[in-house]
Amino acid sequence: GAGVSQTPSNKVTEKGKYVELRCDPISGHTALYWYRQSLGQGPEFLIYFQGTGAADDSGLPNDRFFAVRPEGSVSTLKIQRTERGDSAVYLCASSKDRNQPQHFGDGTRLSIL
Amino acid sequence: AQSVTQLDSHVSVSEGTPVLLRCNYSSSYSPSLFWYVQHPNKGLQLLLKYTSAATLVKGINGFEAEFKKSETSFHLTKPSAHMSDAAEYFCVVSNPSGTYKYIFGTGTRLKVLA
């Protein structure tokens, strides 16, 4: 079946702009995660959704970052007033429930000029 | 607190020779451990997982890993490297009874020489 889908695959924008990154999880997966991968590093946890609610947002770096999952399926990661340090690959993952292995999308490469 | 240390940032092997990628973990709980592979510009693909059943875990593409609690290690091995194995490999720890978020190592880039 279809895997985790992330759009866009690449996003280039100017410092200070607002961006939205979209994640479409595997159908039926109730758990959804966002990670951020900086160059040469392993991914770092940002936020976890169980259904529609953010069960853990402890990894969000500051209040410029926000994520939603209004219907328990598609999720959007939103970044306000982007900074050059936000440049990274943003990865989305989903799993049947939180105790099952996570399946990752190909990521969105975000570049802030 | 949980953490993962991947001892080698780069490993080079010749095609047809064994692969060893080293991982040590730290966890206050009985951990779940995973190995993921990432090919260039691609997402992460699960190779194998350890969840407190058998200590020797077999994964896809001929990879396997052994959980050694006494050494807090979870090294990844393959008897014979193939050119298509060239990629970045990540060791991951998670606490199955509480948190669900993955803690990743910094990765090991595997190069396979013809």
Q: In words, what does this structure look like?
A:
The complex is a heterodimer of chains A (113) and B (114). With 113 residues, chain A is an all-beta fold. Chain A is built from no helices and eleven strands. In chain A, the strands form two sheets. In chain A, strands 2, 4, 5, 6, 9, 10 and 11 form a seven-stranded mixed beta sheet that branches. A four-stranded antiparallel beta sheet of chain A has the order 1-3-8-7, with no helix packed on it. Chain A is globular. Chain B is mainly beta and 114 residues long. Chain B has strands spanning 3-6, 10-14, 19-21, 23-26, 32-38, 44-50, 56-58, 64-68, 73-78, 87-94, 103-104, 108-113. In chain B, a hairpin with an 8-residue loop joins strand 10 and strand 11 (103-104). The termini of chain B are far apart. Classes of the chains: A mainly beta (113), B mainly beta (114). The A-B interface holds A 3-4, 31, 33, 35, 40-45, 48, 56, 59, 91, 93, 98-99, 101-107 and B 34, 36, 41-46, 49, 90, 96, 99-107.
Mean pLDDT of chain B, rounded to whole units?
Answer: 92
Radius of gyration of chain B: 13 Å
What order do the SSEs of chain B take from the amino end to the carboxyl end, as H and E?
A: EEEEEEEEEEEE
Query: Which range best describes the helical content of chain A: under 10%, 10-25%, 25-40%, 40-55%, 55-70% or over 70%?
Result: under 10%
Helix content of chain B: under 10%
Task: Return residue spans of chain A where pLDDT drops below 50 for at least 5 consecutive residues.
Answer: none
> How many distinct beta strands of chain B?
12
Termini of chain A, distance in Å?
37 Å
The structural class of chain B is mainly beta
Tell me the greatest interface: A-B, 25 and 20 residues
Uncertain spans of chain B, ≥5 residues at pLDDT below 50? none
List the helices and strands and how they pair.
The complex is a heterodimer of chains A (113) and B (114).
Chain A: E1 5-7, E2 10-13, E3 19-24, E4 31-37, E5 44-50, E6 53-56, E7 65-68, E8 75-79, E9 88-95, E10 103-104, E11 108-112
Parallel strand pairs in A: 2-11
Antiparallel strand pairs in A: 1-3, 3-8, 4-5, 4-9, 5-6, 7-8, 9-10, 9-11
Chain B: E1 3-6, E2 10-14, E3 19-21, E4 23-26, E5 32-38, E6 44-50, E7 56-58, E8 64-68, E9 73-78, E10 87-94, E11 103-104, E12 108-113
Parallel strand pairs in B: 2-12
Antiparallel strand pairs in B: 1-4, 3-9, 5-6, 5-10, 7-8, 8-9, 10-11, 10-12
